[in-house]
Amino acid sequence: MMNFEDFEEKTLSRETIFNGQVINVKLDTVALPGDLGLAKREIIFHNGGVAVLAITPEQKMILVRQFRKALEEVIYEIPAGKLEKGENANPEAAMLRELEEETGMTTKSVKKIAEFYTAPGFCSEKIYLYKADNLRKVDQPRPHDDDEVLERHEVTLAEAKALIHNGEIQDAKTIMAIQYWELETNA
Description:
hydrolase activity; NUDIX_hydrolase_dom; hydrolase; 2 domains; NUDIX domain-containing protein; elongated
C-alpha cells in the first residue's frame, strides 16, 4: 500500500487570483510525487456549508426553490447555506439558523448524516448534512437573506424521487439527502 508521501503534491508557490466574499481562488505551483515534475493547480477555497433534510410531522420533506445564477435556473434544493466566518466550530448551530431562515421551522431533534466535499479536485468546500425532524414553527422566525427569493415546498418521499427521476432535482446534496431518507425509511 502506498503512503501519503507517495501521493503528496508539495506546494512550492501560491498566487492569489481572486479574494471574494464567498470564495478565494489561488494558483499553486506544486512538485508532483517522485520525479514527475511540476504542475499548476487552480484551487477554490470556500468556508463550507450546511444542509438539512427537514422532515415534517406529516412525513414530508421540505424543499426550497430558488434561482441559482451559476446555472441560470430555478432549482429545488434542501434548505442550506454557507458557513459564516467562525461557524466551522459549530456547523449544527449554523444548520439550525438556515433551517429557521429558509423554512420558519426549528427542532431539537437533529442527527448528522454526513460531511462531504463537493468537488475535491479543485475546491475545499465541505458540506455538513443533517436530518431534522419533530419540526415546530418559530413564532417570529429570522428572515432569510436579503438577496434570496425562496419558495417552500413539502413533498413525500415518492414525490421527491419522482422529481429526481424527471430531472427537476439535480442538486447533489439534495439527491444525497433523499437517498438517505429512502434508506432510512426502508431499513
